[in-house]
Write a structure and sequence with these properties.
The complex is a heterodimer of chains A (345) and B (598). With 345 residues, chain A is an all-alpha fold. Chain A contains 15 helices and two strands. Chain A is globular, with a radius of gyration of 20 Å. Chain B is built from 23 helices and 14 strands. In chain B, helix 18 crosses helix 19. Chain B has a six-stranded mixed β-sheet, sandwiched between helices. In chain B, strands 6-5-8-9 form a four-stranded antiparallel β-sheet, with helices on one face. Chain B is of the alpha/beta class and 598 residues long. In chain B, strand 8 and strand 9 form a beta hairpin. Chain B starts with 8 loop residues before the first helix and ends with a helix. The chains are: A mainly alpha (345), B alpha/beta (598).
Chain lengths: 345, 598
Amino acid sequence: MDADIALILLQDGIVNGSIYALLALSLVLVFAVTRVIFIPQGEFVAYGALTYAALQEGRLPGSVWLLCGLGAAAALAGLVQQRHFLRAPAVLRLLAETLALPGAVLLAALWMAPRKLGVLPDALLTLAIVTPMAPYLYRLAFQPLAEASVLTLLIAAVGVHLALLGLGLVFFGPEGYRAVGFSDARVAVGPLVIPGQAFWIVGSTVALMAALYAFFGFTLAGKALRATAVNRLGARLVGIATSLSGRIAFVLAGGIGALSGVLIAPLTTVYYDSGFLIGLKGFVAAIIGGLVSYPAAALAAVLVGCVESFSSFYVSAFKEVIVFTVIIPVLLWRSLRSTGADEHE
Amino acid sequence: MRPRLSHAPSARWLPILLFALWLLVPLMPGVPSFWLTLANYAGIASVIAIGLVVLTGYGGMTSFAQATFMGFGAYATALLTTAYGVSPWLALPASLLASGVAALLIGAITLRLSGHYLALGTLAWAVSFYYVFGNLDLFGRNDGISGIPPLHFGAYALTSSRDYFWVVWTCVAVALVLTRNLLDSRPGRAIRALRGGAGAAVSFGVDLPRTRLLAFTYAAVLAGLAGWLYAHMQRSVNPTPFGLNASIEYLLMAVVGGAGALPGALLGAGLVTVVNDQLQDILPRLFGPRGNYETIVFGALLVLVLQTSPEGLWPHVRSWFRLPGGSNRRSIPDAPALPARPLPAPGAPVLQASHLRKTFGGLVAVNDLALHLDAGEIVGLIGPNGAGKSTTFNLLTGVARPTAGSMRFLGRDLAGCTPPRAACLGIARSFQHVKLVPGMSVLENVALGAHLRGLAGALRALLRLDRAEEAGLLAEAARQLDRVGLAEHADRPADSLALGQQRVVEIARALCLDPVLLLLDEPAAGLRHAEKAELAALLRRLRGEGVTILLVEHDMDFVMNLTDRLVVMEFGTLLAEGTAAEIRGNPAVIEAYLGSVA
């Protein structure tokens, strides 16, 4: 292999790694705040990519209807959960969150979709359609299990993944789509020709990380989330609603997933079931980071992207095998270091 | 002890009767062969789900790789029977071996992980091997291997779903019986202790990593059996049925049916298989052909069951039909007493610790403690909360490593001692926070204490060659339970007892070790007055027999009247030592407990 190929592979690795880094960040965030290992993260990527692709073609994406359905289900679940202390303001807020919001998004989509307003409005609409699904899912699936063990939550997350996979096929169909990029520009750097989309991806990742850093460091909501992550009971005792923290974490996860989908849609053809593998690679990175450290997870994500691009060059058939077995030595190393707390929760 | 009533005869024969009736189903006229095929799929899934009951329900480990192990079994027989013309019957051991060896290797590097890390580790393996299966020329890549011969007896090939029904369900029955044998044995108790009682099990000599590997491998071998059945039923294999989604489906079966009991595996496998088939039939008619609607239903169902019935559906079914269950009533066999360990002569030194020190970061929990115990004395270790009493216990039993200092037990150096090693030497303990295995009967919990007094391994347990030894262990457990006055509770689940009684069960378990030194952490907490008196009498009897006892206790009446000697700790340091009367008058002790007068 000469240096040029190595550079191209490296560039590929960094671009893909940036996406994995975003996903890893969101996985770490969700796990820290809610203890949910968010396996369905990948489905949000696929939903985001397919919704964005549909909008670009001037079609109304099926995910709008899914959003309305999930919203209605979440409204129902919310009412059932609160049935013993129903108060008008809380109910109104719930209904605004779960019925009015999807309704507004639906109207916006009906108006915007046929007009093909361009890249940026489409991307924003995609975020508006896909992001709220995550907090709805939190209400439906995870909030009632908030006190369960990590393992139970993991199995529930796998159930949600299964359901979203099936729903993805129903609402998007089996065909794959590829979207137009944010930018057609190409920049030549030495032997490399870097597509503009690569800058968008890496740039968005860095910008989002900076935004998250500011959010956690300087805002009350961000600090509340951090407090919940450190100690749920303690957070509750000082007046932080941990279920609200959970919903915020899921909003962020849904948004990050949808954004990753929008970013990745121009790079590769996305099918309804493509998200899972992409999400799992974010996982590999998150786990290498120990599910706690954001910078470590982001670095690991870039590493995963590079391992992937290099192994796809050498032994493309075993690319996935290599990427997923990278996790094993890391898990081993972590468990060797951890004090033998064998007791299960 | 008189043997007690065992199972009511109906309860014992009911499963056998039901199974016999089930085997007659294919002979009923008019049973569509399609139903039998479905039953065969359910049977194969049951075998895997039974493995998950052992692994997840009892062992507390979650695996997303059971379909992968099924794949090892299926590909092994497919390869041997097609490429090498081996008879399918001869390929069966190879299938079991393939999945077993794969599990040993994968387990050896993955089972160090605990909780959700292990689950994620198996998930990674499942994804990896899916691609390995699909990319190896040897395995026919994504097309897989076809032309697998059917099972046969002589010239008669078992190709009809009716014939195969008997093969599959015989395998299910064998798997059920073997698994019951395993769970109801010395290694089985160790597996069952993995969930919720691992900390205690290790203090009675259970080798935790080995036990985890045993459960993991056993579940994988059952999955290998299922793979062998699948390969010869389907007559072809490809990677899809051994992928992650299939693994998730098997886990779903165990969760829905109830991983806490063997019938739950059958219930879950049957239910999910039938519902899956019906959904694949009905849903497309309702919603059109586009979509895997059943995955949506299953995903939602999985979440719903976890939310509303985390133990699965089997406990509900059991209570509807008023079936006996939970801890099984059993007769306690008469067996000769186990050989006892020789105790040191009264007054001989048992334990000497000097300059014992333990620090956690900057905190000195135990500060240059000197402690000696002589055979046949009861010593009380007292002190205010946070004085380092429990840490001292942990140091003496190998749970925590001392930062400095030396400990000698019966002349042996305890440096680098692990909990199983301490148990081996004859140091038994009870815990400040009770550590009993919740679903297991009181008797079996106590029998866990006698783990080191038996040798039977998994193979002997599976084949019931361990019965004589097992009878000895259970008889010993019953004897110790009788001794502490809880004999009538032997068959109840341990977690149904009052907390005070659970502490006493822990003492019985410690006695089962045949200890030289007994370490009791707050044994009288939660006991009523009369029960405390009985406990004190028991401890005095033990002292009379030559057992050395060190106890931490906050009930001063109890401690003062019972002990020969008291050791008082404060902030990790030895504050005073002496007889009860001396300690009572010691100004430093009074100040530590009550504060200074000034």
